Amino acid sequence: MTPKETPRGAILQRDGETWAIVPRTPVGLITPDVLDALNSVVKKYAIPIVKITSGQRIALVGMKAEQVEEIWKDLGNRVGQAIELCVHFVQACPGTSVCKFGVQDSLGLGLELEKLYVGMELPAKVKMGVSGCPLCCASSLVRDIGVSGKKSGFSVSFGGHPGNKPRVADVVAEDLTQDQVVELVRKLLEYYRDNAKKKERCARFAERVGIEAIKAAVL
User: Fold this and answer.
1) For residue range 163-200, what is the model confidence (pLDDT) as tens digits?
2) Residues 14 and 99 placed together within one structural domain of the fold
3) How far apart (Å, rounded) are the C-alpha atoms in residues 11 and 76?
4) Is 79 helix (H, G, I), strand (E, B) or coil?
5) Separation of first and last alpha carbons in the chain
6) Is pTM, for the whole model, over 0.70?
7) Which of 69, 98, 102, 172 has the CB geometry, 3.0–4.6 Å to 132, for a possible disulfide?
8) Is residue 4 situated within a structural domain?
9) What range(s) does the Nitrite/sulphite reductase 4Fe-4S domain occupy (predicted)?
10) How far apart (Å, rounded) are the C-alpha atoms in residues 26 and 107?
11) 123 in helix, strand or coil?
């Protein structure tokens, strides 16, 4: 690796010398084997910071560039998207799996969306949140694409953003089945892919073209 090359799936830190990675942890679920692998690499490579992110991922921070590829191998190549222009992750609340407030299976739907769409190349990064009830514990209304459950089905929203210019997402459709959500998310991603400007996040895209135009294209 030359000094100018970016290690696979890594983010340069403010010291200009060390890197961080975010191994894939679909919808924030961690198995004992994954925990063992993380524990092993943290000790083996003396990684100084291990941090749970707002997107339900685990960031490993402070490694050298030449260590990154070996760490990915030790983790079974569970490479998480960090800076790529694509779907980065799907976060989800527990939903009906365990939560007393859950009315829909947010984990099941989140895992399906993760499997189908994470890594899909797009004009800018996209983050999704799937909540199993209207409390929206998975930040659904401030994600690029959000899903929230109620007793009558799922609602899908588009164009949320929590950053320095926050925006509450627009509801695109309501009372959907899980299969209908998967199909609508596909249409939203494809419309965004084909019509957004490079590095234009979903929130800014929705402001530019208008939610009614988006709904007309996907419904």
Assistant:
1) 899 999 999 999 999 999 999 999 999 999 999 999 99
2) no
3) 19
4) coil
5) 47
6) yes
7) 102
8) no
9) 90-218
10) 9
11) coil
Instruction: Determine the Cα–Cα distance for residues 155 and 173; give it in Å rounded to an integer.
Output: 6
Instruction: Give me the pLDDT at residue 85, please.
Output: 96
Do residues 205 and 98 both lie within one domain? yes
Burial grade of 100 (CB within 10 A; 0-12, 13-18, 19 or more): exposed
Name which of 56, 51, 46 is nearest 11 in CA terms. Answer: 51
Q: Which two tokens stand for residue 174?
A: 């309501």
Verify that 52 and 103 share a domain, yes or no: no
Distance CA 81, CA 150 (A): 30
Copy the structure tokens of residue 112: 């399906």
Which structure tokens are listed for 151?
Answer: 């007793």
Strand order in the sheet with 58-63: 10-12, 19-21, 58-63, 49-52
List the domain range (segments joined by +) for residue 23.
10-74
- The amino acid occupying position 121 is E
